[in-house]
Every structure is written in structure tokens, then in C-alpha cells.
Amino acid sequence: MRSPTRETEALTSGTGGTAGSGRFIGRVGALAVFLGVGAALAMPSAHADSDDSSAGSSSTSSSSSSSSSSSSSDSATESTGRKSRTSSASSSSTTDSDDTAQTSDREAAESPRPGKRSEPAGDPDEAAESESADDESDNNTSTEPPDAPEDEGSVTTQVPVAEVQIVESSARSAPEDPAEAPLASPAEWAMAAATRREVGVEANTAVAQPQATVSINSSALTNQVSPLGTPEQIAREKIAMQTANSLPVAFMKLVLRIGFLAAAKEQFALVGGPDAANLDALDRAVDEYALAAAFQQQILNPMDPAVVTQVAPPHSWYGIDVGGSRLLYDNPDTIYRFMPVNKTSEYVITGRLYDGIPADTTFSVLEGTAGTTSTILTLSDLDVDDDGTFVITVSGAPAAPGQRNHLQLTSKSTLIAARDTLGDWTVEDPMGLAVHRVSGPRNSLFAQLGGFVLLGGLVNDSPLLTSLVSLIPPLGIAESRFVRGTLTALLLVVRGAEQAKYMALATTDPDTGELRAPNVMTQPASNAEFLANQLQSNGYFQLADDEALVLTIDPGNAGFFTVPVYNDWTITDDYWNQQTSLNDDQAVANPDGTYTMVVSVTDPGVANWISTGGLNQGIISMRFQNLDPESSDAPGVQSVVVKLEELDEHLPAGTIYVTAAERAVQLATRKAGFDKRWAPYPQV
């Protein structure tokens, strides 16, 4: 397997056009951002003081309070055997957006699936709004930061987060009104308050050492609604949509559009640059990148952590319509959730698996703003109780001897990415998740403004500096629409500069820097820009309406693979109504265990058809996950362009064809599986 930095180095030393588009976005964006930050800091302090007097938000975020109930049980899964299954599942392999992280949750004890080898497991503002209107809007959808705790005496011992206990508590049901639903239970508030300590402050060591108690209620986690549909998630989606329509973001979207277009002209030069259909999709892509940045702004503060679902398609639930936040090769099969973290604090992640265990589940520690993976914990690495619950401790300390459920943070750690990759959309469920900060410095204005993310490497190793930057308590003004928008614009600078690099994964040879011809897929290889423990095969297509790209795929030692289609802007389109992706669970295998997929604009009538969604030009980025470390059987890909009238000559014997009625059933099943993630039952 190649070094995880090899592709990154090659891409950074690539063509001048790629670097130039990044510099253009960076220079213009930096000017806008610093002007915005200056204006924000000049706002009257009295206004901030009034905002800061309101109730604060908890350092506990739960997504385990609600869960999906339309899911069927996996016929090969039994709750009594869950612990042994997850222990025996083979280890393996984003944000591609996988900017980063995954592996095997499928266990060897499960029966193989039929046809498969057995598995190892609104418009922008036109004028500035008044500050009071901004704050009133924010207060309706978000929580204020908690009051800073009073100084205590010096802490000489560590809070024993490894001794977190799971206890029963009264069940919490799905929110009836998400706008008014509480963001944390009383038990979670009590846990956060009881365990909080401050760095570098004197304390009375005679006081009994606090114990963190995390509540997970079995009856609250019985798949009544989607595990993603928490009150906190709904509130943050509302904030993100408001932020994405702020003036700083509106300006940065114009800059982003210019940068994206310049990058595409460079990267797709061999085929004449982006075609008309992709140009039509550019504005929608920029909108999704902006909403993604608005979500990322809300996970800048590691002192007020939350489980936030993003890199998500458009969806409607709980009475709101949420735009898409897809970017950088989002995977149609994957649920992406992120939690902000920092080395100066200690955290506990609690979760629960349901009967429909995902094809692949990972927890990845991401570094800096680029999201490089430093540590991965797979489901097969975890100790999971018989009822499906688990606890993961997170801190700057290494795991204790024999401790499996632990993630170690470094000075540059910023996020934990949790990925659930679903093979059978109609059966498999994302896990319920919650994050709790149990110790660390007080919440602060520095943390609110993303200081620990942008400058954390300079302060995280110094208790004195950490204490100094934490002196100014959280201010309500930092939650205003303008400040959120300014920070989001800054994040768009970072994301915009990355776009050319991600396009180049499909269009450029990483070793030579030369543009590659279309319709040729690379052989599966590791890439630092994606999940660290998966392999990718990348390429772009240029097809006439009467042509098809035939892919022959040998999964090798991969327990899961998927073949999604993207536009030139590295995002998927309407994959819930159109079959623009297929994974190995959805496809039909050949008798020898390989798979033959047909990528085309026109439906050729084969079961393993991957629609381009009407695109004649676009990108394919295949993923191979859940790799068996005990096997040297590497995945492989072959590709050939053929005329549709000659397609039969290039397909293996026994290829399955479908009628129009059978295709309709195939698409209806796909849509039902997608809907199950977001709204399995009516929600109001």
C-alpha cells in the first residue's frame, strides 16, 4: 500500500493552473474574511453582554435519543451474538469528501449474501440586516454558550473517563417541535456540569474526584425514527441554512464560482473543459459547498461538542426542507457525522448499533483543516455490549493496557469523523451516537471563533497558553448571523482551494502531473485525501448518448465496494431517484465473483446499469472498503468504451437483463432505502 502522503505531494507540485486557482480564492477570500472579522470585533460589547446572559448550551450532544424504525432486521444478525461478531469481523480499510476515514463491521460469522463471496465482515441577503434581527433569529434556532465556570483550585488528577458507566434512564422520544425541543437531557446537563474541570487553575483536591455517568436508554433506541433526526441536528440545520444566506457567504460564493470554473477548465482540458450540463450544475454545486461550510462552522468549537450530520443530500423532515451539503466525492452509501475535539479536553462517545449493522463503520481522528487522518477505530476493533451499546473514550493520552475503545488526540486533532457505510439501504441502519466533553478548559470566545482549530497547534501543548486564550468567556455576538457567516466564508476559502486538487484525482496522473485520457480508471490504491483504510479507483468519462463505459471489477479482499458517478464539481446528483451508483450489495455478481457494470447515459436494460444522470461528461470515484488484512488478493478494475449496439459482445455470459417494470421496482426499492435514512415515519 502506498504512503498516505505520496498523492498529496504529487498533487501539490502539480500544474500552475491548479495552484493558481487556489491562490486566487485564497487571496480574495482572505481579504473578505479579515474585513468581516474586524467589523465583528468592533460591534458594541453591551450587545454581546446581553446575549451572553441567556442560558447556555450543554457540552453533550446526543443522537442516540432517536433512531430509525422502518429498518428490517438483518437475517444473519442476533443481538446475543453482537459482541463476538464485531470482535471477529475482519479489520480493513472522506472526507472524500471522504476528506478522510473506514473498516469492517461485517463479521465472518454472518452468512454471505446471495450472489456474493463471504464477507469479512433562499436567496442571499441584498443588504446588511440589523444586529438585533440577527441575534433574534439565531436565538430561535440555537443555544447560547454556557456561562464560564468560576475558577476552581488546581486539578492534580485526571477525570477517569475510562470508567464511564452506562446506566438506564427514562426514555426520550422524538421531538414534536424541533425548534423548541431541548438539545440535551437533564442527565446530560448534570454529567457535563459534574465532570467539567479547567486547565491551569488551582482547585481544592480534597473534593471527591468526579465520575462521568453517561445515560443510554434501551427503550429510547429502538428505531422509532432515524438515528440522525435529533433535536440538535434539526436546530443546526436551521442555523446552517441561515448562515449560508448571509452576506459574507454570498460574496465568497461568487469567488468560489470563479475558482471552480478555472479549475475545471484546467483539469478537463483534454475534453474541452466542462460541458454545458456541468456548467448548468455549477451554481447548485457552489450552493452545496456553502451549506457544507455553514455546517463546518458549527463544529469549530471543541469546548461545546456536538454530533453533526453533514456532507448530506437534500432532504425533508420535521417540517423543514434542508439543502444539500455534499462536496469532494460524497459517497451515496455513507452517513457522515462529525464531532469537534481538542487535545486539551477529554470526551466520551456513546453509541448503539441496531440489528441492521452497516457494511462498514469507522471513527477517524482528523488533523488540521485539511482533514488528514491520524487514527482510525473500526467496528471490529470495538468492544460492543450484547445490546449493541458501546463507549469510546477520547483524550490526548494513549490507551491504557488492554483498552480497545479509545482514540488518542494529537496537538493538531480537530475532528472525529464517524462514517456508517450502508450496503443494503433497506436493511442497514446508521448507529445512534452522542458525544460528551467530560473535562478540559472552560468554553471561551477563542473556542467559539474556531481558535483551537485554526491556531490549536500553537496552544494545545501549553497549559498556560490554553488558560490565557480561555480567559474571555463565550459571547452571544459570536453566535450572530454575521459572525457565523464570516467564519463560514473563511472555511469556503479553504474548501475552494481544495477543489482543483480533488478534481485532479480523476483527471491527472499523480506521478507525472500530466492530464489523463478519459474513460480509463486507475487501479485501486490508497489515497490520503480519502478514508485512510480504503482503496480508490478514479477516472472521468466522456461518452456519447450511444456509448457505454463497461467496468469489470474484481473486489479482491474488499468486503464492500461502490461505484458512484459525480459531476465535474465532485458531487453526486439525484442518486435516490436515479441509479447513479451501485455497490456490491445492490449489484449482481458474475459466476466467478467479479462484477460487470455498464455506465451510460441511455439505459441499456442490464441490471448492473449505472446511470450518468444525463451527463455525457463526469467523474467516477470507486471505493473499496472493509479490506481483509489477512488476504493479498488486491482489487482490480478494467474499463472499455463500446457502442451500445455492440454491448452484448462485451458482457459475460449470464448477464442479467431487466424489463422496464423490473427497472421501476429497482428504482422504487432504492428510493425507499434512501427515505428510510431521513424520514421513515411522518415527522412534525
From TrEMBL:
It comes from the Bacteria. Residues 122-138 have a biased composition (Acidic residues). Residues 1-23, 44-157 are annotated as: Disordered. It comes from Mycolicibacterium hippocampi. Residues 44-79, 86-103 have a biased composition (Low complexity). This is DUF1214 domain-containing protein. The lineage of its organism: Bacteria, Bacillati, Actinomycetota, Actinomycetes, Mycobacteriales. SUPFAM superfamilies: VPA0735-like.
